[in-house]
Amino acid sequence: MPRFCFVIPVYNHEGAIPPTVESLRAFQLPCVLVDDGSHAPCREVLQTLAAENPDWVHLVVREKNGGKGAAVKSGLRAALELGYSHGIQVDADGQHNPADIPQFIQHSGEQPGALVCGYPVYDESVPLGRFIARYLTHVWVWINSRSLEIKDSMCGLRSYPLAQTVTLIDEEYTGDRMDFDPEVLVRWHWRRYGLVQLPVKVCYPVDGVSHFRGFHDNWLISAMHTRLFFGMLARLFRRPAKRVVL
């Protein structure tokens, strides 16, 4: 039977992470919290959550901030080492609706080898600039995957089959920051692994904290799309190896 846990990357979300964790308590699933080099106030909140909930909160500490992708990868590896089969990635800022999670558990149970990925149904809180930027990324994802199958490549609500995912990120380069979510999904598609996509409600809190670094993260995302584009071309023109008959 699948063994599920939550994987939550956290960086300086001391205000949002306690209610986010509390909203997941009803599922009675362990939480792997990844402290991605947070400042002292957030670090103290995370340590308190782990100390007060030792039976279901496991804290992974990264001494230096490496980015969302690096934190997610640390959390997925830790979850696999702890014996779980699936890690449900949830963002720390509370933008995901816990009511959507049961369908992720259901579909992962029915197709345990598939990555179950959300695609957002936005309300009026979505910033216009972010919406347009996401669409541009989707276009490049469709080009690099040579498919329209991937409906959204940046949603942070996902259920990862841990063994397959950790193998992928150990064998192939994936970005360490905001470029991780789309890149791992394209590389997953290249391997022809199973993919299930589910609509999820997404809201952007008015007082939410964003760690998207304009120029730097846009540069990393552009570099990621370039990397995938040339990888796609290499796959497109790669000739199959000749069969050797002995």
Question: How would you describe this structure to a colleague?
Answer:
44% of the residues lie in helices and 17% in strands. With 246 residues, it is of the alpha/beta class. The protein has one domain (4-237): Spore Coat Polysaccharide Biosynthesis Protein SpsA, Chain A, CATH 3.90.550.10. Helix 1 links the parallel strand 1 (4-10) and strand 2. Helix 3 packs across helix 6 (162-171) and helix 5 (128-145) packs parallel to helix 7. It is globular.
Name of the CATH homologous superfamily: Spore Coat Polysaccharide Biosynthesis Protein SpsA, Chain A
CATH topology grouping: Spore Coat Polysaccharide Biosynthesis Protein SpsA, Chain A
Structural class per helix/strand content?
Answer: alpha/beta
DSSP helix fraction: 40-55%
Low-confidence stretches: 241-246
Q: End-to-end distance, in Å? A: 44 Å
Strand order of the largest sheet: 3-2-1-4-6-5-7
| Major β-sheet annotation | 7 strands, mixed
* CATH-derived architecture: Alpha-Beta Complex
| Number of self-contained structural domains | 1
Number of helices: 8
Order of helices and strands: EHEHEHEHEHEHHEH
Instruction: Give me the Rg, rounded.
Output: 18 Å
Q: How many strand units? A: 7
